[in-house]
Automatic annotation (TrEMBL):
Protein name: DUF1707 domain-containing protein
Annotated Low complexity bias: 26-38
Region (Disordered): 1-47
Biased composition range(s): Basic and acidic residues: 15-24
Amino acid sequence: MGPGGRTRSAPPDAPTRDAPRTGDRPGVSPSVGGVSEEVSPDRLRASNTDRERVLRVLREAAADGRLDLEEFEERSSLAHEARTLGELPGITADLLPAEQQPIRLDRQPVLGLFGRAERRGRWVAYPDELAVALVGRVEVDMREALLMHNHHRMTVTAVLGRVEIDVPEGVEVRMTGWSFLGRRTTTARRSELSHPPVLEIDGFSLFGVVRVRAPRRRRLLGWRRRDRRRGIGA
């Protein structure tokens, strides 16, 4: 019961506290979360980082007056007690637009049609994801994404546009498809893992650019910095 006798209602689609608990989430590498084909994304175990993403949104909403103290405490409690990813999206559903939600389990293409579109943060990368830049720009950050399969295929099309994809360390990138008066490039090296997650980039570029970027190897950068301090390569 809130001030003045108001009854507090739970956030839209708020999870129940007795949501089913599932086993620990299997992983395919330290950098990318991989999931079993038998487990749906909403039943995967939520991590402390997943819960903190939701709590950060709640703190911002309380600070600017979108939530009062009682609502903030109620939703924070739901976030702290959440055990699966499916329990988290409903807590912030009425606080941010769908594309800005801290946890995204829905399946939507990334379309930059005469404009800009992006996909970042914690989201589920389903098989046969689609990214299209038509006289526009698309940015897809997969460094915190959950891959539904160890071999992930993404159809990427750039027509008079640009698509940039960031992948975490350890992912093996395979570029397929074709290009006409455009470019399709990757900076990813062959993974050193015995069974690395594979990202296959299909599609085409027509007067456009498709670029996949991977982190630089820290050991190599450290070696170069040491050599420069010694006067080599300066």
